């Protein structure tokens, strides 16, 4: 595969440096989060995370090596392949804690719902690129984009995975608003969403309803469903200004904090490094998001603008939902912290999103084929 020399000359070093910095902080934090666990013959999470980071870097290279315009051209194909993986999940997917979300392929366990976040964006860009470049969406124009959201969202709800379905909705709304939508269509979309919300309650599983109730009042069941949120808030608050010190967080080291290597990994960090450490990490995340938006602003074409924006919003919503969860301002929906939570599928997809942003950045000086 031949790569234009100007692409290599304009290699975007900032983005991978920010990503690797967050991965490094995440590895150090994962070591602390798991230091009180007896693994026996099981490989520690921080070691396995290294494997996922390595695979993610390989996929990042793939994502920025293939021209994003070629990806957009085959956007529907990539999207369809992702949907097929979601369908295969119901035939041979692993059931864990009552949810059927994981596929085992070649010794690797993957979560197809993570990949659809990326391919849905590319498919939406393909739709806009083919039909409505630079113009606002009307009501009739929203039919196909809405289908691109609805099909995977329903499949993901079936798993069940309310958090990822909610993530897709936010990602879709963000994309449509950014691409442009007429006021009449926007008001209709808002009214339809509000009308559907009460019906969502009747299709939610009992544990999902319980999480929502605990979000509104975690003290209702402090030793049961509200335990996660309460312990997370205690951990974050007990960190104070400078934290309790590395490997000295009482909530995590004494195992009071559940899911401390995945959903609540930032609670571990906040307890040990305090307000100052939290601000440093949030500044790094903010730099990553702003850099992605800057790449979108400087893109040489409309497709590049939308690809870079969509990929950047994946970072933003991962961060926004996870931080909201650990602070108790959003329900616990199982969304990890980008590059810092343990998890293979999310790590690889986030690395690919970073590769797409680099792809747009590196090709802004290359002429259209």
Write out key terms for the chains shown.
single chain; 369 residues; mainly alpha; 15 helices
Brief sketch in words of this structure:
The chain is mainly alpha-helical. The protein has 15 helices and three strands. Helix 6 packs antiparallel against helix 14.
Commentary on this structure:
43% of the residues are buried. The protein starts with a helix and ends in a 7-residue tail after the last helix. It has one domain. The mean pLDDT is 85. The protein has a three-stranded antiparallel beta sheet with strand order 1-2-3, with helices on one face. It is mainly alpha-helical and 369 residues long. 68% of the residues lie in helices and 4% in strands. The protein has 15 helices and three strands. The protein has helices at residues 5-9, 14-33, 45-65, 68-73, 75-92, 112-131, 143-158, 162-179, 183-203, 206-216, 227-238, 250-253, 265-298, 302-326, 344-362; strands at 94-96, 99-105, 108-110.
């Amino acid at each position: 595969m031949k790569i234009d020399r100007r692409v290599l000359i304009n290699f975007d070093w900032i983005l991978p440096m920010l990503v690797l910095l967050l991965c490094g902080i995440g590895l150090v934090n994962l070591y602390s989060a798991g230091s009180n666990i007896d693994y026996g013959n099981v490989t520690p999470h921080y070691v396995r995370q290294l494997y996922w980071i390595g695979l993610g870097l390989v996929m990042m290279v793939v994502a920025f090596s293939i021209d994003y315009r070629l990806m957009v051209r085959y956007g529907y194909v990539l999207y369809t392949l992702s949907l097929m993986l979601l369908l295969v999940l119901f035939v041979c997917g692993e059931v864990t804690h009552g949810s059927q979300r994981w596929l085992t392929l070649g010794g690797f366990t993957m979560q197809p719902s993570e990949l659809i976040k990326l391919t849905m964006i590319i498919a939406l860009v393909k739709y806009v690129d083919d039909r409505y470049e630079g113009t606002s969406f009307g009501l009739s124009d929203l039919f196909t984009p809405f289908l691109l959201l609805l099909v995977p969202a329903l499949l993901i709800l079936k798993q069940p995975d309310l958090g990822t379905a909610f993530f897709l909705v936010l990602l879709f709304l963000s994309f449509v608003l950014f691409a442009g939508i007429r006021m009449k269509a926007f008001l209709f979309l808002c009214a339809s969403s509000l009308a559907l919300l009460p019906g969502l309650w009747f299709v939610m599983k009992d544990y999902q309803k319980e999480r929502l109730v605990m979000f509104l009042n975690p003290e209702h069941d402090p030793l049961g469903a509200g335990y996660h949120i309460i312990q997370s808030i205690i951990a974050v608050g007990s960190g104070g200004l400078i934290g309790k010190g590395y490997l000295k967080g009482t909530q995590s080291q004494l195992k009071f904090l559940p899911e401390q290597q995945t959903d609540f990994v930032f609670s571990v960090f906040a307890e040990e490094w305090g307000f100052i450490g939290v601000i440093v990490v949030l500044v790094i995340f903010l730099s990553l998001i702003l850099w992605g938006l800057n790449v979108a602003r400087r893109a040489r074409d409309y497709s590049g603008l939308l690809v870079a924006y969509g990929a950047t919003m994946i970072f933003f919503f991962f961060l926004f939902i996870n931080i909201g969860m650990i602070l108790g301002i959003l329900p616990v929906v199982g969304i990890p912290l980008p590059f810092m939570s343990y998890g293979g599928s999310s790590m690889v997809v986030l690395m690919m999103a970073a590769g797409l942003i680099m792809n747009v950045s590196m090709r802004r000086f290359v002429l259209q084929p």
